[in-house]
Amino acid sequence: MNQNEELAVAQMRRAVHKLGSSTEGFGEITLIRFLVARSFDIDKAAKMFVQWRNWRASFVPLGHIPDSQVAGELQQNKIFLQGLSPRGNPVVAVKVHRHVPSKDPLQFKKYVVHLLDKTIASSFRGKEIGNEKLVAVLDLQKLAYKNIDIRGMITGFQFLQDYYPERLSKCFLLNMPGFFVRVWRLISRFLEKVTLEKIVIVSNEEERRALIREVGVAVLPEEYGGRARFILLQDFQLDKPSEEKTLLIS
């Protein structure tokens, strides 16, 4: 950290305390994510941090969402956790055509948290550092109107923005059908500028090569230009220390 960041972190800790909360147990790197997400506005970053702590305590009281609470979503076999990119970022792939819009919004929100927590925890090496980021690959191949879930996609991105600040490194959209362009424009209205800047719609060979470089051939599935096989989210095994550490994830 540079001197300005050290000063901002110290000011944020005091601001959080004034709001009746605490930053105890959270390192500088974690707090900087909240500061970056709010353009180093101390009061806004402190408010975001406190809101996140309150949300986490009420929505994820166990520190993680167990498989048993999201079994219906897991059974769709639509999300894959592939391992780490060359930069050490966990890579998650989604086959969107397997998605069935949920009739239970609460369970879907729990599934989003389960997915994000497990993805981030998969990059831990013994303990959380606080600056871990993920790379997402959303495959829209074979997408049909029955799979379109505007509310679900907005929920996923808004959870990233509100409760997992600066956790997204890149998001690649593959094989986007023409009819989905209008849907994506609608979804984009709900995303912050900083989030949109991290999203790449892969539409040419140069962008596909960028995807391969970012994800890495070792973990990118073969059908996207890599050498890996798909690994279902529920089949990916975290080590025990990583599982226990999920209570600090944001």
Automatic annotation (TrEMBL):
Any Pfam family the entry gives: CRAL_TRIO
Alphabetical list of SUPFAM superfamilies matching this protein: CRAL/TRIO domain, CRAL/TRIO N-terminal domain
SMART domains in the cross-refs: CRAL_TRIO_N, SEC14
PANTHER family according to UniProt: CRAL-TRIO DOMAIN-CONTAINING PROTEIN, OS03G0850700 PROTEIN
Ranges where the CRAL-TRIO domain occurs: 67-232
InterPro entries, A to Z: CRAL-TRIO_dom, CRAL-TRIO_dom_sf, CRAL/TRIO_N_dom, CRAL/TRIO_N_dom_sf
Record-given protein name: Sec14 cytosolic factor-like
Organism encoding this protein: Salvia divinorum (Maria pastora)
